[in-house]
Amino acid sequence: MSTSRPSARGLFIAFEGGDGAGKSTQAGLLAAALQAQDRVVLRTREPGGTPIGEKLRSLVLEHGQGDIDARTEALLFAASRAAHVQQVIAPALARGEVVICDRFIDSSVAYQGAGRSLGTDVVRRLNEWGTDGLLPDLTILLDVDPRTGRTRRTSGQAAEDRLESEPDEFHRSIRQAFLELAGREPARYLVLDAALPQQDLARRIAARVAELPA
Ligand code: TYD
After folding, report:
1. Where is the Thymidylate kinase-like domain (predicted)?
2. How far, in Å, CA of 151 to CA of 181, rounded?
3. Is 60 exceeded by the pLDDT of residue 110?
4. Which CATH number do you get for residue 121?
5. Which of 10, 30, 114, 170 has the fewest CB atoms lying closer than 10 Å?
6. Ligand 1: which atom is nearest the Cα of residue 162?
7. Cβ(46) to ligand 1 under 6 A?
């Protein structure tokens, strides 16, 4: 298997965390800060990011698609990610761009591996095969208490999707899995308490990103 940056010249930053952690807000603030420094930034998200990925996104997230067993769910997320890497992320990195992605492999390891009890190692291997070994240069984990996350995302928002509507216990196992992943490779992670004020989070994230090789 190839190394973490097969043909990359750009920078690959992923945001991870439970539902309602505020990832999209922080991804947007980081993108704006980097663009202000004249960096070319590609913001994208998973599942999705390609036509096939958006179709898989509706299949796997919307209610009413019929039963989806855990293995099928894991394979759908992995397929969406494989297409995303091939069609969008790897080409942007090869052009020297900064790619900021809302969720990546760790979401599958946490949600399908831990949450759905498929096993974190097998889900990681499946996804690393799908992405040909591409890993983020930095993963920003916004750690959120599942109850806070649920309150945040349901206040004034649309109904919860298939994964979000799982019970608190499911979301607690996901949080634990994210923290374990970060604990194993501290150099490649920045873990922040999602309850901190937005501007505070943004400052800490920008400072950590500034330490990465340009
Ligand atoms: P999304 O609306 O993008 O949620 P958020 O804004 O919280 O990121 O929905 C993505 C949902 O899909 C979320 O509940 C997490 C789940 N998910 C997985 O279960 N596995 C995965 O590999 C990915 C990328 C997401």
Report:
1. 15-205
2. 25
3. yes
4. 3.40.50.300
5. 170
6. 14
7. yes
